[in-house]
Each structure stands twice: as structure tokens, then as C-alpha cells.
TrEMBL record, chain A:
Protein's recorded name: Ribosome biogenesis protein YTM1
GO biological process, one term: maturation of LSU-rRNA from tricistronic rRNA transcript (SSU-rRNA, 5.8S rRNA, LSU-rRNA)
Domain NLE: 11-70
Region described as Disordered: spans on this chain: 232-267
Location of the protein in the cell: Nucleus, Nucleolus; Nucleus, Nucleoplasm
UniProtKB/TrEMBL annotation, chain B:
Name of the encoding gene: ERB1
Protein name per UniProt: Ribosome biogenesis protein ERB1
Record-linked Gene3D superfamilies: YVTN repeat-like/Quinoprotein amine dehydrogenase
Organism: Dendrothele bispora (strain CBS 962.96)
Quaternary structure and interacting proteins, as annotated: Component of the NOP7 complex, composed of ERB1, NOP7 and YTM1. Within the NOP7 complex ERB1 appears to interact directly with NOP7 and YTM1. The NOP7 complex also associates with the 66S pre-ribosome.
WD repeat residues: 381-419, 633-674
Function as written in the Swiss-Prot or TrEMBL entry: Component of the NOP7 complex, which is required for maturation of the 25S and 5.8S ribosomal RNAs and formation of the 60S ribosome.
Length: 444, 721
């Protein structure tokens, strides 16, 4: 390695988890080199046909300056050997489309290929295809929907696809709805509410389904978590509340002579998970193959790990004064990321082998309240949205600063929900829905 | 003496003090040692005067005897040596008067019985210690023969000392003869001296008698003053103030160690500043360069004496002998004395205080977390947001603005869920503190609307409905109140319209404050306008309103319920009064010293009250302690608008027209000895000032250290930790 520029040089050892490993060898590199030089060095050393840009992580921080400046900032002598890990660069996200809504969007789902589903505060669930066309629009709730998830999908035939959708709302209930999407744009998509889930006495904050779609979890402000199966009962499991004359009149007036056949069935929970002492803000299932576990976080500053089969809280992580707003599991299922109102997303190691680990293994600092997190398909990448309207793309190996960030709605409106699938980040919030292109790990 | 004047008055004899002070010549020294110090002083003075008189007399005696010439007169002769006149005294000759020791007595044994030497051959010892031998003595025949033969034998006498006969001298013989004759034994004595005429004789006659006045009556009448003085002493003795024959206690030891006492704590008098030492210019022979040139001298003469840099002109003399007397010596001494006298000498004690030590020791704010630090989200009203209220569970916020819009929104997201539009200004909002029902009250102009928020559990909803609009109304009170309670008919009930309304009397003005009792049955409202006090207490279960005060002095600004006792705080413009509602009496009047009270809040313990004013002051009252503020904080630069204690955390917040919110840590200790700890934690800025108004109201979220603030710019901000 002949250094073209004169000046001090720094000994560096490279390591990587990417499929482009360098032989483990100490390099003497000029201190004035920046990321671009190092990336070129690796490309040339491996003589890659197609140039792959790399980012470099030195001691948990992405290298943004020259090596010499980094050393002087962190107080590292130039004689010391630096261990540098390189990862493939994340391209700056690019805005693909902007889909304004009438009301705030609380939840976004990109799970269904070809569609973006949004749940909104006006009680509507909308679906857009990639050509920004609204293909589905139905009022599922009369109250604002707080979260939405897909339970199962069913490709009936070429013309129609039927999906079960679970939504949670401020009207103290969650619902399971059937959405039939017509592939032919001329036909109308349909939706039907199949069942309403009645347990909670407070607004339902989130709903989550396990990967197989057999069970649902709902969390509520009344500190309860409900466990439900997704079968639709033939009759009401929960009796109607006693209604006054006034309501009966009103209901008769509203419903008219409609028969009770299409009426959603009132469903009771399989189990109630009680342990939280304050509002549960989010409950999620464990990752694929690990769906016996559920993770919940709440305003009582705890993250709880549930054994869903037995309905017990198997582990509690207690933080101090961190009312949690959202929780997500990293793709490998080892790390839980919980966003709290103290402007941090805290990382907790939730592997069973780690025992009773209640201390955080790191935190991602935000300048505003982080409202939502979603993990990517690789273990290290997460996307977080915050109330300052900035969506940040993090690499968990570099926790000090985000890898990339972009402003939704020019950073003036709150981001309430994000989803990241297939290299597309759906951002829902005050301004409706925005779709950004953010390339995930190339290996996927 | 003055202390006895009343007793004297009882005797009916008027006396002036001057006469009383004079004390008659009665020897009462021993009795008046310590009891009558004043009298003693008088006595001493008189004694001293007497002594002085005596001394004068004794001194005058020698003068009188001067002409008698005790000492021999000096002769004035011309000295041989000096040629001057000198006085020569006559030599003193030893004679009859002089000491007899100069006589040559051979026997030196002294005046001892001489029969001790009867058996000795000697009769004593002479000056040299040698024996003086007994003279030879004949027998009786020899003695007889001697008396016959010696003609002087009959004029001699036996001298014991020498044990021999000695002839008497002529003086002794003369003395014996005089004694025989009965004459004066002294021959020198002249019994017939000529009379010295002092007052008689020529030119010495007394022309006038000494006094021709008749003898005054007091000469033979017993003295009244004497009697009074004696009676006084007798009385003093009877009362025990004077102890007769009291042993004289010597208060001061006669001898003492003068160094045993420690020196006085006072600093020794400061030495006078030293005058400046003379310099070369003041020398009698200064170097040439110190001498003034003609120009300098002229300039020196022209300047005023006060302005001269030196008050003399250097002079050069060839020798010290030629230096004349210093002509300005007296003036210089005088100036020096003036300097010393006019300038008091004070030693300035330099205050050696570390300024850091004056700052009270407060814990650092980072150790007092959690408290709100940043603006989490913002909810915007189109116009001035005057009031906010948080639901008891801390999840919902209601905010009202000037245009009559009341918005219900979620605290953690800031999403407006429901909006009510009324005609008129919203003056106050408050959520009912009960947890089994859920509704809030909107003070809209002169009406109070009770509104049920949406998305309630059915049980809570029904309970709320039956509470606000019971199917059977309670019986109306006997004396009808001017406040009307109206419930809209049940078939017109919607979520958008209030279920229950209270119409305050007309022209009572905007309801500026609503405050709930902690049980949620009583609600007090304050109306800003009107000539009445404007305070109403509404009881929800009886659907009845009453005015607790017929008349309140001053305009009521705020009212508060005590959190634990049936007490009621009423803040007028300058005073906060605390009433007991059950006993209907005034308990306390607090004087914050604020010109115009704007807001107050009571601590959850009920023992502490904070009062804020439009004159920027914030007073903390410890109700157990005093009617005066325990602490006055003046941190805002504009008027304070709102105060609120956090229901759980030891925090309180104050908002001001300067657009800032200040967060304080306020820890109250349960033991009465420890003072409350108040630590300013954080200034939250983010509201804009609109029309001179800043942050109008602050409210804490009940479960978290989160603060909601509404501002004149229409923004309602949520501050999180």
C-alpha cells in the first residue's frame, strides 16, 4: 500500500460481516484519508467488478471525517492500531410518493406486496397501490384507529385477494375485518367487520398478530393485554351492554331493519395478561419461530416479556422514568428496542441466555420524541420516526449517530407510524402517507 | 436621694432637691458605706472639702510663723569665688539641744540597773570594750572626812553610771534653787513679755462689731433638716437599707497581680499615622536640583496653598548653624493636630468572605430528575388558548380558546379527537377529579357546561349520565338561588351538546376559574365581572348552587379547596384568606405583599400555598409557619399567569407573560422542623408572546412529570422529561 500523500499514517485493521472480506492484515493508511478513500481502497483490493460503497465504523461511530480528525476528536494517538469495521453504505433515501390523507395516519403497513395500507384517525383503512391510486377505502371504526396489522392473507384467485386485518381503536375495542381487494381496478374492493374484540375498558393502543396469524394480542390504556384467537365465533361471546331507551331508539334509527346476520360478532379474549401498572403502549410478538413470546412496553417504564402460552410475565425490564411509546424487536430477535418519551430508543438484550439483564445495552438518542420503530430484515438496521418529522435509519453497530435520515413533510409534522419492507419505508403521520425508498441490505 | 422623695412627700414637707443633697454634719460614715452611694458621694465630697480646709489651715501656719524665724536668718555675702552675692547660713553649734551622745561618757553599759555590777571589780565597759574599773571608795569615815574637807562636797551628787560623786554644774544648781524658790525652772522663760496687740491699740480698733443682726430663730430651734436627715437614716436603718456597724468589707484587695488579668478585648488604640519622612528637598543643604528656579518659585507663589505640591520652598544653607528658626512650626503642628483630630482613625476590617459560600447549597438539578425538559409536541388553536385541563388519568387534554372552541386531544400524540364550538369566550375548564365518572366543565361566559368526553367505557358513561342528568331530580332548595341548572331533554342528547348547564346570574361576567373539590361533588367558580364577589359553590348531587360569601372585600381572583380539610382559600387582589367552610369562619389572612394576585395553588399536603402575582413575585407560604411568605421568588421578568403543583412529583411550575415556564423542585418534608426545599430546575421557552400575553395556563399531567401549557399564541405545548 503505497500512500500517495505525504503525512502521518495510521495502522488499521479491517473487519467486516459483509461478503467482501479483506485478508486480516495491518494497513498503514494516510491519516488524511476519508470514507471515500477507504471505500475505494477496499474496492480495489478486492477488485470488485461493480463498485460497492462502504461505510466505516470506528469504535461504534460512523467515520464522517478524515482519520486524523477522528483521532484527534476521540483522543486516539496516531500510533494506535484502529480496528475498523466496514459495512455497505446505505444510499440516501429518496422520496417516492406522497399520499395526503384527510386525517392523521396512525399506522402504515407495507406487508402486502404492491399495496400500502394506512389506518387513520378518521376510522378509515385505506389501501394504495404503487401507482398512488387508492384501491380501498372503508370506515372500519367510528373512532380513531390506533394501530393495524395483517392477520392472514388469502389469494383466492387472480381477481380477488382476501385479507384479514386487525385494527385497534380508541373506542375501547379491536376489530377483525375481512378486506377483499380486487385486482381489477374497475371492481370495487369490499370490507366486512367480522368480529369485535371486547375486553378493554380503555382505548386499545395496539394490536399484533403472530406470524402464522392464529392469535392476536391487544394492548390497552387500562394496563391489560388481551390474547385472542382469530377464529370468528358464530354467536356473540360477550353480551351486549344494557342499553337505555335512548340508545335503543338511536340504534334502531341508525340500523333500521338491518338483520343481525352481518353484524360483527362480539368476541371474548382467550386470556388476559395482567402485569403492567399503567398504560400499555405497544405489544409485539416475537420473531418468526419464536412466537411463544410477546414483548410489551408501557408508561410504567417497563418492558415485559410474556410467555403467551402460559399467560405469564416471564421477565420484566424496569427502566427509570422512561414511559415507553413503542417497542420493536431487531430482526434476529435478540434485541428489543423501546422508544420512550425521554427522547431515546433504548436497546435491551432479551435473549434468554442473557439471564436477567435489565440494563440497557445502548441507546439511540433523538432530538425529539421517537414515536415509532420498525426493524429491517437484517439484525442491525432499524428505522425510527419521531415527532420532529424526521425518519432516521440506524445501524445498531453505530449508535452515536444515524446512518441516514430524511424529513417527511419537510420536517414540520409528526411521524406516527413507519413500516419498512422491500426497500420501501412507509411513513405515516400528520401529513398522511409518504413512501421513501431506502435500500436494505443487498444480501436480502 | 431621689428615691426617697415619696416618703418625704408623705410627711407633707415639700423640699427641693438642692437642699436635700446637702447633708448635715453628722458623723454617719460607718452607716453609709454602700447603701447610699449618692449620699456617700456627697459625704465624701464634704469630707474632702473639710480636709482641704484643714490642709489650707495647716499650710497657712508656717506662713504665720515666718516672722518668728525658726531657722536662722541667712546673711548675704559676696562670694570670693564667683564675685556674686550668696546667702550664708550660720553654723549649727552643738549645745544643750544637741544630742547627748556626743558627750564623752566612759561607761557604755547603758541604762541598766547598776547593782548588777555590785560584785564586780568594774562598773562597765568603755567604748573600746575595756573594763571601766570601779573607783576606789573609802569607808564611812573617809566619806565624812571628805565632806568636811572638800568645800564642794555638798554641791555634788552620786553618779550611778560611774559609781562616783560628781559636782553639780552651776545650771543644775540654779535649777535646784529655782525649784526651791518655787520659780519657773527655766531661766530663759519671761513671764512678763510685752503683749502683742492684734485687735487693740492704735489703728487696730474694731470700728464695727462683727454682726449686729439679732440671733436668728434657727439658732435655738431644733433643725428641721437635721431632723429630716436623721429620720431618713432612721428609716433606712429600720428598713434594713443601712446596716449599722457593718464590717467594712474591703472590696478590693490591697495587693494584686497587675499582670494576672488578661488584657482587654478591645484592640489597643490605633497608632496615629506617621508623618512622611523628610526628603532631600527638606534638607538644610539640598542638592542643587531640588532648589526652585525663579519660574518655579513664581509658580509656587501663585498657586493656592492648598494646591501646592509642597508647602515649603527648599532653601540652601552652607551650615546647620545658619538655619533660622522654623517660622511655620506652630502652624504645621496645628495642621497635624487637625489632621489627627478631624480624621477619625478606624481600622477597616476587610471582609474576607468567599463569594461562593454565600450561595445557598442546593442540589444540582440533574439529581432531581425527572422534570420536563423539552417540548414534545404542540397543539395549535386558531386564537388565544386561555385554559387547559387534564383528565384525572392523564391521558386527555381539553383546551379552550377565545373563540369558543373546546378541543379534546390525546396527550401523548397531540391528536384532536373531538371539538366543540360554542359562542363566546371560554374562560375556564376543569375536569372532574372523580375516576368513576368522566366529564369536564367548560366555563363559557356566564354559563357552565358539563360535557362528557367520547370513548368512555359503558359503565362509566352510564354513571356519568345518571350523575349529570338523573331521572329523578332532587327536590329544589327552599330558597331559590339565582343560579339555574338546566338539563336538555333526553331526546336531544348528543355528544356535541352539553348534558347539563349551569346558568350563573346575568351580568356576573366571564367565569374565570373553576375548581373542584377533591371528592368531585362540590365545584367552586369565580366570575370575573359583576359587582358581586362572584364566588359560587355548586353541589352536583343536590343540583344546588350557593354563594358562600355575602360580601368580600376586594375583587376575588381565585379560590381553592383545601385538599384535606374543609377549608377554602380565597385570593383577593392583595390578600389570601383561608376560611373554614363547615364552621363558617375566617381562619387566616395571608399577606403575600403582592400588589395584584394572579394565581395560586395549594400543595397536596395542604400545608403549603404558592401565590403568584402580576408584579412578577411568587410567594411560598408555609401555612403552619406564618402569615408572611416563607420565600419570595422573583424569577420571571413579566407577570405570573399560572401556577400548578404536580399531584405526585415534588414539582411545581409557573408561567408568565414573558413567554417562559419555570419548573421548580419543591420538596416538602413531613417533619415540621425541616424547611421546604425549593430548587429552580428549568426554564422552558417556546411560547411566543402575543399581544403582551405569554403563557396563560400550565397544568401537570397527573401520572407523569409532563407539563401542558397554553399560550396567547394559540399553542398548547406538551413538555416531557
Amino acid at each position: 500500500m503505497a500512500s500517495s500523500s505525504t503525512g502521518p499514517s495510521i495502522p488499521i485493521i479491517f473487519s467486516t460481516q459483509t461478503p467482501y472480506p479483506l485478508p486480516s492484515q495491518k494497513f498503514m493508511l494516510p491519516a488524511s484519508w476519508k470514507r471515500y478513500h477507504l471505500s475505494q481502497l477496499i474496492n480495489k483490493a478486492l477488485s470488485l467488478v461493480k463498485p460497492v460503497p462502504f461505510d466505516f465504523i470506528v469504535k461504534g461511530e460512523i467515520l464522517r471525517t478524515s482519520l486524523a480528525e477522528w483521532c484527534s476528536e476521540n483522543g486516539v494517538g496516531e500510533e494506535e492500531t484502529l480496528e475498523v469495521e466496514y459495512i455497505e453504505s446505505v444510499m440516501p433515501p429518496q422520496k417516492m410518493s406522497d399520499l395526503p390523507h384527510e386525517d392523521w395516519v396512525s399506522s402504515v403497513s407495507c406487508r402486502l406486496p404492491g399495496y400500502f395500507f394506512t389506518a387513520s384517525y378518521d376510522g378509515y383503512v385505506r389501501a394504495f397501490d404503487y401507482s398512488k391510486k387508492q384501491t380501498f377505502n372503508a370506515q372500519i371504526h367510528s373512532a380513531p384507529i390506533t394501530s393495524m396489522c395483517f392477520v392472514s392473507s388469502d389469494e383466492d384467485n387472480n381477481e380477488e385477494s382476501t385479507h384479514l386485518l386487525a385494527t385497534s381503536s380508541l373506542d375501547l375495542s379491536a376489530q377483525i375485518s375481512k378486506v377483499t381487494l380486487a385486482s381489477d381496478p374497475s371492481k370495487k374492493s369490499k370490507s366486512q367487520v367480522l368480529a369485535t374484540l371486547h375486553l378493554h375498558t380503555g382505548p386499545v393502543s395496539s394490536v399484533a398478530s403472530n406470524p402464522s396469524g392464529s392469535h392476536l394480542l391487544t394492548s390497552s390504556w387500562d394496563s391489560l393485554i388481551g390474547l385472542w384467537d382469530t377464529s370468528i365465533p358464530s354467536s356473540d361471546e360477550v353480551p351486549e351492554p344494557s342499553i337505555t331507551d335512548r340508545e335503543r331508539k338511536k340504534r334502531r334509527k341508525l340500523n333500521g331493519d338491518e338483520k343481525d346476520v352481518d353484524k360483527p360478532k362480539r368476541k371474548a379474549p382467550l386470556m388476559v395478561l395482567k402485569s403492567h401498572t399503567a398504560r400499555v403502549s405497544r405489544v409485539v410478538y416475537g420473531t418468526e419461530g419464536d412466537d411463544k413470546l410477546a414483548y410489551s412496553c408501557g408508561f410504567d417504564s417497563t418492558v415485559r416479556i410474556w410467555d403467551v402460552e402460559n399467560g405469564i410475565c416471564s421477565h420484566t425490564i424496569t427502566a427509570s422514568e422512561k414511559p415507553f411509546l413503542d417497542i420493536a424487536l431487531a430482526a434476529d430477535g435478540h434485541t428489543a428496542l423501546a422508544a420512550s418519551t425521554d427522547r431515546t430508543i433504548t436497546l435491551y438484550d432479551v435473549r434468554e441466555s442473557s439471564g436477567a439483564s435489565t440494563t440497557s445495552s445502548g441507546s439511540l438518542l433523538h432530538p425529539a420524541t421517537p414515536s415509532c420503530i420498525v426493524s429491517g430484515t437484517t439484525a442491525n438496521q432499524v428505522v425510527s420516526g419521531a415527532y420532529d418529522g424526521i425518519v432516521r435509519l440506524w445501524d445498531l453497530r453505530s449508535q452515536k449517530s444515524a446512518m441516514a435520515h430524511f424529513k417527511a413533510w419537510d420536517g414540520r409534522k409528526k411521524v406516527l407510524g413507519v413500516d419498512w419492507k422491500r426497500g420501501m419505508v412507509g411513513v405515516g403521520g400528520e401529513g398522511g402517507l409518504e413512501v421513501w425508498k431506502a435500500v436494505e441490505d443487498v444480501r436480502t | 436621694m431621689e428615691m426617697l422623695s415619696d416618703e418625704e412627700g408623705s410627711e407633707g414637707e415639700e423640699s427641693d432637691g438642692q437642699e436635700v443633697d446637702e447633708f448635715p454634719e453628722i458623723d454617719a460614715e460607718s452607716d453609709e458605706e454602700s447603701d447610699f452611694e449618692e449620699r456617700e458621694d456627697d459625704e465624701n465630697e464634704e469630707d474632702e472639702e473639710d480636709k482641704e480646709d484643714e490642709e489650707e489651715e495647716s499650710e497657712s501656719e508656717p506662713d504665720d510663723e515666718d516672722p518668728l524665724h525658726v531657722f536662722p536668718k541667712a546673711k548675704t555675702v559676696v562670694s570670693d569665688i564667683t564675685g556674686q552675692l550668696k546667702r550664708v547660713f550660720p553654723k549649727i553649734e552643738p549645745d544643750y539641744d544637741s544630742d547627748s551622745s556626743t558627750e564623752d561618757a566612759p561607761n557604755r553599759v547603758g541604762n541598766i540597773p547598776m547593782h548588777w555590777y555590785d560584785d564586780m571589780p568594774h562598773v562597765g565597759y568603755d567604748m573600746d570594750g575595756k573594763r571601766v574599773l570601779r573607783p576606789a571608795k573609802g569607808d564611812e569615815l573617809d566619806r565624812f572626812l571628805e565632806t568636811v574637807e572638800d568645800p564642794s562636797a555638798w554641791t555634788s551628787a552620786f553618779d550611778k553610771n560611774t559609781q562616783s560623786d560628781k559636782p553639780l554644774t552651776t545650771e543644775e544648781l540654779d535649777l535646784i534653787r529655782r525649784l526651791y524658790a518655787g520659780e519657773n525652772p527655766d531661766a530663759e522663760y519671761d513671764p512678763y513679755e510685752p503683749m502683742t496687740e492684734w485687735f487693740t491699740g492704735k489703728g487696730k480698733e474694731e470700728v464695727m462689731p462683727l454682726s449686729a443682726a439679732p440671733e436668728p430663730k434657727r439658732r435655738w430651734v431644733p433643725s428641721k433638716w437635721e431632723k429630716k436627715k436623721v429620720m431618713k437614716i432612721v428609716r433606712a436603718i429600720r428598713q434594713g437599707r443601712i446596716v449599722p456597724s457593718k464590717p467594712k468589707a474591703s472590696t478590693q484587695p490591697q495587693f494584686y497581680a497587675i499582670w494576672s488579668e488578661s488584657s482587654s478585648s478591645h484592640a489597643p488604640p490605633l497608632p496615629a499615622p506617621k508623618p512622611a519622612l523628610p526628603t532631600n528637598a527638606e534638607s538644610y543643604n539640598p542638592p542643587e536640583e531640588y532648589l526652585l528656579t525663579d519660574e518655579e518659585r513664581k509658580k509656587w507663589e501663585e498657586t493656592d496653598p492648598e494646591d501646592r505640591d509642597r508647602d515649603f520652598v527648599p532653601q540652601k544653607y552652607s551650615s546647620l548653624r545658619l538655619v533660622p528658626g522654623y517660622d511655620r512650626f506652630i502652624k504645621e503642628r496645628f495642621n497635624r493636630q487637625l489632621d489627627l483630630y478631624m480624621a477619625p482613625r478606624v481600622q477597616r476590617v476587610k471582609l474576607n468572605i468567599d463569594p461562593e459560600s454565600l450561595i445557598p447549597k442546593l442540589p444540582s438539578p440533574s439529581s432531581l430528575k425527572p422534570f420536563p425538559t423539552y417540548k414534545s409536541l404542540k397543539f395549535v388553536h386558531p386564537s388565544l388558548a386561555r385554559c387547559i385541563a387534564a383528565s384525572p388519568d392523564g391521558a386527555w387534554i381539553v383546551s379552550g380558546d377565545e373563540n369558543g372552541i373546546v378541543s379534546l386531544w390525546e396527550l401523548s400524540v397531540g391528536k384532536e379527537i373531538k371539538r366543540w364550538k360554542f359562542d363566546g369566550k371560554v374562560g375556564a375548564l376543569e375536569w372532574c377529579p372523580r375516576t368513576d365518572v368522566s366529564f369536564f366543565v367548560v366555563g363559557l361566559e356566564e354559563t357552565l357546561h358539563f360535557i362528557i368526553p367520547p370513548y368512555l367505557p359503558p359503565a362509566v358513561y352510564h354513571l356519568t349520565q345518571t350523575l349529570l342528568a338523573p331521572s329523578t331530580l332532587p327536590p329544589p332548595p327552599e330558597n331559590p338561588s339565582p343560579v339555574r341548572w338546566t338539563t336538555s331533554p333526553s331526546n336531544t342528547w348528543t355528544d356535541d351538546a352539553p348534558l347539563l348547564s349551569i346558568h350563573l346570574p346575568a351580568s356576573s361576567g366571564l367565569a374565570s376559574q373553576i375548581v373542584w373539590h377533591r371528592r368531585g361533588d362540590y365545584m367552586a367558580t369565580v366570575s370575573s365581572g359583576g359587582n358581586q364577589s362572584g364566588v359560587w359553590i355548586h353541589q352536583l348531587s343536590r343540583r344546588h348552587s350557593q354563594a358562600p360569601f355575602k360580601k368580600v372585600r376586594g375583587k376575588v381572583q381565585m379560590v381553592l379547596f383545601h385538599p384535606a380539610k374543609p377549608n377554602f382559600f380565597v385570593a383577593t387582589q392583595q390578600y389570601v384568606r383561608m376560611y373554614n367552610l363547615s364552621e363558617q369562619k375566617l381562619l387566616k389572612t395571608l399577606t403575600p405583599g403582592i400588589k395584584w394576585i394572579s394565581s395560586m395553588d395549594v400543595h397536596l399536603s395542604g400545608d403549603h400555598l404558592i401565590v403568584g402575582g402580576y408584579d412578577r413575585k411568587l410567594c411560598w407560604f408555609d401555612l403552619e409557619l406564618s402569615d408572611k411568605p416563607y420565600k419570595v421568588l422573583r424569577y420571571h421578568s413579566r407577570a405570573i399567569r399560572s401556577l400548578h403543583f404536580h399531584p405526585i412529583y415534588p414539582l411545581f411550575a409557573s408561567s408568565s407573560d414573558d413567554g417562559s415556564i419555570q419548573i421548580f423542585h419543591a420538596r416538602v418534608y413531613s417533619d415540621l422542623m425541616t424547611d421546604p426545599l425549593i430548587v429552580p430546575l428549568k426554564i422552558l421557552r417556546g411560547h411566543e408572546i402575543a399581544q403582551g400575553l405569554g403563557v396563560l395556563q400550565v397544568k401537570w399531567c397527573s401520572k407523569h412529570p409532563w407539563l401542558v401549557s397554553s399560550g396567547a399564541d394559540g399553542a398548547v405545548n406538551v413538555w416531557c422529561n
